[in-house]
Specification:
The structure holds two protein chains of two kinds. Chain A is mainly α. Chain A is built from 32 helices and two strands. Chain A has a two-stranded antiparallel sheet with strand order 1-2.
């Protein structure tokens, strides 16, 4: 119950946030931060239960037919992720209060930030895949608004749209994958999938994975995870999303949302993993992302883009590790996830503080700020050390485990990991050290220390990096060990230690740090070389290409379909009807007409039929208006006679009356309208005649087909039987109209009334000449 | 008779559609009227023809005698006849108005809903 309520309460906070910030009260952000803080403490209190494999759950039936339930489950992996969300969330909420300060839209900002937080908690805690999908899309939606928060800027709007299209599109693919998975296994509850012997590898079953639909389901779900976690070739949206305000970048694009894909991979690894497709796709995509992100980060000069590309590298690493899937790799993934959130979150917040205090994020314009921003500088420096992977920080432990995993596989993989390590050391130096040391550089604003709200976050996160570095065993027993077990699908005992002794991984890591520092020292010339290489044909280019292509297609389609010419509209409608109807008639293979369905033809009936047909031809061919109207009237009278002949006197009377009125109206109107002239070319007339005759022939066949179909007459029987007893009327057609279906007739009268008013208005009112 | 009527309906549809595809507004209206005849007759025929009695209970009877014509399609068609009359009347008034305003009944020349400005035309 409580876990469902925590998620709900965050959405509640979204509702009240705008009211909270109406008075621009400085304390508002501190007060409202108490909620995520309390939630974090609550999650922490659940940890022992989760570690003992007795997680808190809650389930509420929603739509059982679709397999959708409000079910939540807080196992260690979920809690690790949820605590990151609420914990970093608390700091970001406080930070944003200082960062956005007097921004008039701050209430709206917080509303969407809390919606995002609630959705993210939902993703972490959902035990139902459909529920997870809904929260997942909600994070895409809220991130759209948050990235585009400065909506006056076109670049922000474009970046927001790009993120939405990429992650939302991936989300849709994921939904299809989830549905397929549900079809294969019969359940959408993650816990049921995990414990089910036919679905979970750990439980000894491979029935799901040998199903023919498994591969499509796997690929679709992977698409969702890859787009969300900005994996190659979908990585381009993440650097562009840096158009968001920095608190958003720190929260969404480093600590939480981009890790949702990694979380999903980890969550579903026991169900979907353990086969070659998983191994090569997930680790391959992760590897490429890791290399691309690491490479591109060398040439950046913007603080946030530097961090964004290095985040790409880290996300790629985590994905790759989950793809590899050995217990050691999974352990490395979980530890890196945790360590990365701590140091990268801190550095993002620091980048925002630097931007806020100096007015620039360009690293070439920043230097020697430590004297002016000593507290921020300390947090930045220590977090940078953690990122670079130096002891005694938690980042060191994470890096050692990743290196060990690389050594476990092969030298090529190790080389790729070392490349990632190099770029990590480099970015740590450029972001965490560069701006604070060296010569003081002139900046747009005179720098001074950031307010408490803005340095609290970096300091606390940095402190956690230190704390976790010193007490790795506590963390590993409480969270990491059980979390890795749930990723692996079997019990994995994880021991984390700060000091492993001198081994290959340690030596390689020292070499990486030294090489990274060397690269850092030549950063300006390195950048100069790399920036000369341009990548025109990257995936972002294809994104633009396909977006432009779709717009062009939409325009062409609109020009074709919405030509503005009535005749074309009619033509399109008729063609669709005839082609569609003709195709289905062809599909069912024609029709049968049985003799008992056919009534005989009396000679005067044949005469009436000839009259109608002749009148129709006359109406078409007549060159005089009066002739055409007369023919139209004759056709109407013919129809009325048919009605009379086959048991419908009411219809006949109505038809006679209406026909007379119509003819009078036509004559009156045509008196004022021009004479018939031939406007179309002969070619157009022939084309139209062919289309008309074809349609007419199809309608004839339709009637013949309809005659052969047996119609249930139960509704009519009801009317016939109840007309006298219930409605006290003997004319059943009239009773249906005014009694049984009285409301329809009421609507009909209304339509006629409106038409009458319209006619009156058209005839009576004229715009006076000379006005406007 | 059904087969005969099927051809009548086809003919009415063909005539109506041909007229609706003309450039002249007045022909389009005649086409519309022909099309509504065709549609009414289509419903009537598709719901089975019968020469049996009217669906009216005699004054001396308590229930309808079998066989009888199905009253339900009749009720539908009755509504359709009246509505199509409303549509025709409105369309006629609209085309009258259009012609008075822009002086043409050629649909291809109706590019604007603004009233033709005589003074401008003469000066240009």
């Amino acid at each position: 119950m409580m876990i469902a309520l925590t998620t709900l309460s965050v959405f509640g906070a979204a509702l009240v946030a705008p009211l909270f910030f109406r008075n621009k009260n400085k304390l508002a952000s501190w007060l409202i931060a108490l909620l995520p803080l309390g939630i974090t403490i609550y999650f922490a209190s659940l940890l022992p239960r989760a570690a003992a494999e007795n997680p808190e759950t809650f389930s509420f039936n929603w739509a059982r037919e679709f397999g959708a339930n409000f079910s939540f489950r807080a196992d260690s992996l979920s809690l690790l992720f949820a605590m990151l969300i609420s914990g970093v969330g608390t700091l970001v909420v406080i930070y944003a209060g200082g960062y956005l300060g007097k921004n008039p839209n701050i209430g709206r900002f917080y509303a969407w930030l809390f919606i995002f937080m609630g959705a993210m908690l939902g993703v972490a805690l959902s035990d139902n895949l459909l529920l997870l999908f809904i929260f997942w899309e909600l994070t895409s939606l809220s991130s759209y608004v948050l990235i585009g928060f400065e909506h006056e800027k076109e670049s922000a709007r474009a970046a927001a749209l790009q993120a939405l299209l990429v992650t939302g599109g991936g989300g849709l693919a994921m939904l299809a994958g989830i549905i397929l998975l549900g079809q294969i296994s019969g359940t959408l509850e993650i816990s049921a999938l995990l414990s089910n012997t036919s679905t979970s590898l750990s439980a000894g079953g491979t029935a799901v994975q040998s199903h023919p639909l498994f591969i499509p389901a796997l690929i679709l779900i992977l698409l969702g995870a890859f787009t969300k976690s900005a994996q190659f070739p979908f990585h381009f949206w993440l650097p562009n999303a840096m158009a968001a305000p920095t608190p958003v970048s720190a929260y969404l694009h480093s600590a939480t949302m981009v890790k949702a894909g990694v979380y999903l991979l980890a969550r579903l690894h026991p169900i979907l993993g353990g086969n070659d497709i998983w191994l090569y796709t997930v680790s391959g995509v992760g590897l490429i992302t890791m290399l691309v992100g690491s490479y591109l980060s060398f040439s950046q000069t913007d603080l946030k883009r530097l961090l964004a590309y290095s985040t790409l590298g880290a996300l790629g690493t985590m994905t790759m590790l989950i793809g590899l899937g050995t217990p050691l790799a999974l352990k490395a993934a979980v530890v890196l996830l945790f360590a990365h959130a701590l140091y990268k979150g801190a550095l993002f917040l620091v980048a925002g503080a630097i931007d806020h205090e100096t007015g620039t994020r360009d690293v070439t314009q920043l230097g020697g700020l430590f004297r002016a921003l000593p507290i921020t500088g300390t947090a930045a420096g220590i977090s940078a050390l953690s990122m670079a992977g130096l002891p005694p920080l938690f980042g060191f432990i994470a890096k050692e485990v990743v290196y060990e995993t690389g050594l476990e596989f092969n030298p090529w993989l190790m080389a790729a990991i070392i490349f990632m390590g190099l770029s990590t050391v480099f970015v740590a130096g450029v972001v965490g050290m560069g701006p604070f040391f060296g010569k003081l550089t002139e900046s747009p604003k005179k720098p001074h220390e950031a307010p408490l709200s803005m340095w609290l976050g970096p300091i606390l996160l940095t402190a956690l990096s230190l704390l976790a570095g010193f007490f790795p065993s506590g963390i590993s027993n409480l969270i990491v060990s059980p979390a890795v077990s749930s990723v692996a699908g079997e019990a994995v005992k994880v021991k984390l230690a700060l000091w492993h002794g001198v081994n290959t991984a340690f030596l390689l890591s020292i070499a990486t740090v030294i090489a990274g520092i060397l690269l850092f020292s030549i950063r300006n010339s390195l950048r100069g070389v790399l920036q000369k290489i341009e990548w025109k044909w990257g995936p972002a280019y294809f994104y633009t290409l396909s977006l432009d292509g779709m717009n062009a297609l939409a325009r062409a389609q609109t020009r074709f379909l919405q030509s503005g010419t009535l005749r074309n509209y009619i033509l399109i409608i008729i063609l669709c009807v005839t082609l569609g109807g003709g195709y289905s008639l062809f599909r069912i293979g024609g029709f049968d007409i049985l003799p008992q369905h056919i009534s005989d033809v009396k000679f005067y009936e044949a005469a009436i039929a000839a009259l109608i047909l002749g009148a129709a031809i006359a109406a078409v061919t007549s060159s005089s208006r009066l002739g055409a109207i007369a023919a139209l009237g004759a056709a109407g009278i013919g129809v009325a006679l048919i009605f009379l002949q086959f048991g419908a006197p009411d219809l006949a009377i109505t038809q006679f009356a209406i026909e007379a009125l119509t003819v009078i109206l036509f004559v009156l109107a045509f008196y004022h309208l021009p004479k018939f002239t031939q406007l179309s070319s002969p070619r157009a007339r022939i084309r139209d005649a062919v289309i008309a005759l074809f349609t007419g022939a199809l309608m004839t066949m339709l009637v013949l087909a309809a005659v052969g179909v047996h119609i249930s007459d139960s509704i009519s029987t009801f009317f016939v039987e109840n007309s006298l007893p219930l409605a006290h009327g003997r004319n059943i057609v009239n009773v249906i109209l005014v009694d049984f279906r009285g409301m329809d007739t009421m609507g009909e009268i209304t339509v006629l009334g409106i038409a009458g008013i319209g006619v009156y208005a058209l005839l009576k009112f004229r715009r006076k000449k000379g006005r406007e | 008779m059904e087969i005969v009527l099927a051809f009548v309906i086809g003919g009415l549809y063909a005539a109506g559609i041909y007229m609706m595809l003309r450039r002249s507004l007045v022909k389009l209206l005649i086409g519309l009227a022909l099309l509504s005849h065709a549609a009414n007759l289509l419903i009537f025929t598709a719901a089975r023809l019968t020469r049996a009695g009217f669906p009216i209970i005699g004054m001396d009877q308590q229930a309808l005698e079998l066989p009888y014509a199905d009253p339900l399609p009749q009720a539908l068609i009755l509504t359709a006849i009246v509505i199509s009359f409303g549509v025709t009347a409105f369309a006629l008034a609209l085309s009258y108005r259009t012609y008075k305003s822009i002086h043409t009944d050629d649909l291809d020349k109706m590019k604007t809903t603004d009233e033709a400005d005589d003074s401008k035309e003469t000066s240009a």
